[in-house]
Amino acid sequence: NVQPPEKPLQAEEWNRLRESFRSPEVFEEVMFNSMVRCNSPIDVAKSLLTHLAKSHGDIAYSLLVKYLALCVQQGQTSEIRDVYDIMKVRFKIIESGAYNLLIRGLSNSDQWRMALTLLEEVKKIMIPSRTNYESCIKAASRHQELNLAFELYHEMLTKDLVPTFDVLQALFDFSRGMKDAELQKELFGILLYLRENQIYPHKTFMWSIKLWFESIPGGNWRGHLTNIKDSGQCPVCKHQLEDSNLTEEEYSNLRERIIRDVIHGTDTFRKTSPQEFEAFQTFVENRLPFDIVIDGLNVSHMKPKKMHCENLFDAVNHLAKNNARLLVLGRKHMLSNSSNWKREVMKEMQNKADFFFAENISEDDAFLLYATLRSGKHCKFVTRDFLRDHKACLSDSRTRHLFRKWQRGHQIAISSSVDRKRLNFLPPFRYDCVVQTTGDTWHIPYKDTFDEKYSYEVPRKWLCIQQK
Amino acid sequence: MQSANMLLKKIVRSSVLPFAAQHGMKKDLLPLSRTLSLSLCLKQDNSCSPSEKLDLDAWKKVMKSGLQEVSETVPERKELSTLAAAREMVEMWRIAGRSVPENISEEQLKTFIECPSKSAKKKYLRFLHIKELSKKNDKRKMNEKRERRLETQQERASETDETKSNSFVCLWSKCMDRAYSWRAAQSMIFGQPLVFDMSYEEDMSIREVANTVRQLVLSEGCNRRSVDPFHLHFCNLQDDSLYCKEFIKHYREAWGKLLITATDQCYTEIFPKDKLVYLTADSPKVMKTFDHDKIYIIGSMVDKSIKTGVSLARAKRLGLETAALPLEKYLLWNSGAKNLTLDQMMHILLTLKDTGDWKKALEFVPKRKYCGFVNKPVHELRKTLNLINTLKLGKKHEEVRKQFAKNYSKKLMQK
């Protein structure tokens, strides 16, 4: 590695440096890389370029791009333009890496409109990246050209690019204090986009939303941070949040897709067999509807020190309390009177709940989903599994969102505290955890940190905004 | 001057021309600057005064000036066809220093354009780049080898050329081939069948099929060279399938003369069902011994994305017995998937057939995947481990450990 010089050098000094470098053929590349890394003054880089231009009569494209990166890093607008002009005459087309740099560099300067023309140029050869759009949208909104910013934002959505939080946040930030019905509608649109895609903003983005609401002239919006109770009532405005029930259509849609994608998939034999699935279907049809469906094997591993059948027995006893109709799904090996599965206990349980035993190599989760969905909207299921693999089997994102929504509202989880003697069942959410509105209130769940990202984790903190 | 300009224009326009050539041409055209700067450097050496002003923007002038005429004469850019545009783009990426192949054929360019996403495009170009590099390396090595051989020949020629007496004519490879073929032919009459199930084409991408066939070719090769080869069956092999195309690519005219049975029939039509055993890593049953009366089936599938249970599903559908290799039992598994390549399977099965020695056979599992051999059965190892722990920690811990061991084996069973 080489340390770039601090001052511009003469040609012969560069020559000497180059000679002393162990592999002179890559000297320039390495030198420019380290200049970018050390953020050297651009005069140094220029002196090297001048030396190269004079001795070779030409400068390689890769070096120009590296010089460009240095200029962008230091916000040297006029240099960026010059490099662009040179590239433009020198090469037939410019590749995406240089365009990314040019757009980023120019959008942060007073020549940001130039970035827009570059974006148009990029569009001719490929789909611009989402960071290209990000730069342009941010630049436009920074200069109060919000119409333009939204135009770009919509264009980006039609190209199936997912906007970054930064873009969305910038749109809120720069719309602050403006009284414009059209603009307001657009920003509400962003909130609905978050709702549709079950995206939760992070804390700083949430603050931007709050401040924007409160800044609308004559809007009289007030925002409060709060935690929603289990009942689903907002402590601030006493408003009841939406429940997570699906509509009839969504529900039947989800059921069909689960059968098609998760249970059958490409080959029914992968998770079960047609005979077995048929047997299960008739079994379920004859005993409908259930109130709770239990993943027997999953529950039986609850406490490792206890026998498996004991764990399951506890769970069944606990859940059978209110005359709930239970279905326990298991595998055939549970019936083979082993040290973990005592026959007497199994017998006793079978009086309290319906049991279905799948083949040892079948997947019981698929049956769990089917039985629950077939029983109707009131039916819940018990498992510690997050069901991520099944969600992944669903083929389009819309159904995946439906699945998650349904899962949030219908999965009874078991808390994993080891020291407590009794099993602890966590009821599913009674309310739906998405951005929601009633017109004069908005409730927005948010993440505490930027990088909470597990799909099954749902934020517990909310922003409540109401209009006085 | 005019001719020089013409030349320049030509070079600039045809950017397909490697950059290095451009350098060279330029140097010849503008010889002044280089010699000047060099001579300056030589003459002045350390004496160059720091007060001398550097023109930092001189490079821009150079870059622009050499091209002024060009940019004037080049008419507004014509709309390029998508293929040509893609070629330009790839070329630009190359000179920007990305991993991109130098030469790209029309067909590859089409595949490149059809890649569904940017990352897929990037990956494809990278793949081509690496392929190109290794090809170049091979060529270079071959050339070196040839030169070395020539040298030694010359040396030998210069030595005394006494004729050695030998009772054999040097025809080694031909003789070996004949012997192998004889053995393979015998195996086709008396040998134990081994089935490769070629029904996974729609589960694989084109590249995966190509990899599969490569592995099959290797397997066939090592089978042929073994002392007691299997009688290979390629079952469910359709005539116009991708598999076939790839086979022909590899074997050329030898494909029709291979001493194997290739058929579009299913193995269930050829052999009695109760003799068939489908080998799959997903099987709940673990193979204990190699049975010389059974007919083992291997799925001809390379699975780069994770598709579990595909071959198990196939066996379930046909109601066949399944088995997995006892990898856990003999190896302390480290990392990596339990599914092995087809040629590794072939080596393992051949060794088992000849010796019945699991340890020897499982030598062919890649070393990176396991830490070492379990020299005793696992339960014995666990017993000694428990004993050590009781001595060390007292009785209470032993019970916990027992419980854990029990749970653990249960978990394995459920899998």
TrEMBL record, chain A:
Xref: CDD domains: PIN_PRORP
GO CC field: mitochondrial ribonuclease P complex
Gene3D superfamilies: 3.40.50.11980, Tetratricopeptide repeat domain (1.25.40.10)
EC number of the protein: 3.1.26.5
Cofactor: Mg(2+)
Regions that span the bilayer: none
Span of domain PRORP: 228-464
Main subcellular location: mitochondrion
Subcellular compartments: Mitochondrion
Protein's GO biological process: mitochondrial tRNA 5'-end processing; tRNA 5'-leader removal
GO MF annotation terms: metal ion binding; ribonuclease P activity
Reaction catalysis annotation: Endonucleolytic cleavage of RNA, removing 5'-extranucleotides from tRNA precursor
Stored Pfam families: PPR, PRORP
NCBIfam families in alphabetical order: PPR
Assigned protein family: Belongs to the PPR family. P subfamily.
Protein name: Mitochondrial ribonuclease P catalytic subunit
